[in-house]
Amino acid sequence: MVLIGDFLMYAEHRVMHIVPFLRNHIHSVHHKYTTVFSWAGGWVHPAEDAVVVACVIVTPWLIRAHPLSFWVYVVLWVVCLIDEHSGHDVWWSPARWMPFHIGGGGLPHDIHHTPFTTRNYGFMLCLWDQIFHTYESTDSWALKMARKRIIENEKAALLVKTNTFETEQQTEREAEKLRHTNTD
Description:
Helix content: 55-70%
Order of helices and strands: HHHHHHHH
Radius of gyration: 25 Å
Distance between the termini: 91 Å
Number of strands: 0
Mean pLDDT: 81
Strand content: under 5%
Low-confidence stretches: none
Shape: elongated
Structural class: mainly alpha
């Protein structure tokens, strides 16, 4: 049930990004939040919400799941929704319970919510992203972010040096003007 339902969610999410109209008019509601937090997971356009609910309900219905199995699946689905939009990568995340690093979780979905990212569409699992080559490794992303921070820090340091140098030159020019004014 989890595999089929998660595949449907992956497909729905990827289609929402691929089709320009859906991305710009429907899914963009959800992506207004670039910094994720748990409630952002449920902040979606009503049309997308209907499709997502259908993806969740259709799987247990197709396999004729027992009602208890259905409700366990729905609870797991909601927990994963909150976890992946929590903005935290914690040891007790349900994604960490899954073997072979196929669990999604907060960090891969944080990457997805960064601007201009076309990666990590998976919901409960990152398995589909790995299979369809849309997975951005959290390790490579962390490395990119670290490099970006280093470059930003170097730019900031250079800006401070430049501003300090320009300020010193301006101060020297003003002092020179004062000297000329006082000697006249």
